[in-house]
Design goal:
By secondary structure, this protein is mainly α. The protein has one domain. It has 4 helices and no strands. The longest helix is centred in the middle third of the chain and has 23 residues. The two termini are 14 Å apart. 24% of the residues are buried. One of its GO terms (molecular function) is transmembrane transporter activity.
Length: 104
């Protein structure tokens, strides 16, 4: 169940990061409400995941996969540029996440 909760927490993390951009400095009401709810949901589901995972593993995977999802969706939604350096960095993060999952 811990890995399931972690997956949900990652989705909330991505929603939080993308929502933060849409708030325009928390000056827009509904994007701000969405962002705060996503942040709360992410922290709550991460806390459930950490009942069965080491904090170092859970948190690292949460932020790592969340970062990748945020950059990829940021490129799609906000037309942010994907560079070769970003792609190589993603591959390094994915490799680290796989190794953490195997070691956990």
């Amino acid at each position: 169940m811990s890995w399931f909760y972690l997956a949900i927490a990652v989705v909330f993390e991505i929603a939080f990061a993308l929502g933060t951009n849409a708030t325009k400095g928390f000056t827009r009401l509904w994007p701000s409400v969405f962002t705060l709810l996503a942040a709360a949901g992410g922290i709550f589901t991460l806390s459930l995941a950490l009942k069965g995972l080491d904090v170092g593993v859970g948190y690292t995977i949460w932020t790592g996969i969340g970062s990748i999802g945020t950059v990829l969706l940021g490129a799609l939604i906000y037309k942010e540029k994907l560079t070769g350096g970003k792609i190589v960095s993603f591959l390094a993060i994915i490799g680290g996440v796989i190794l953490l999952r195997v070691a956990a």
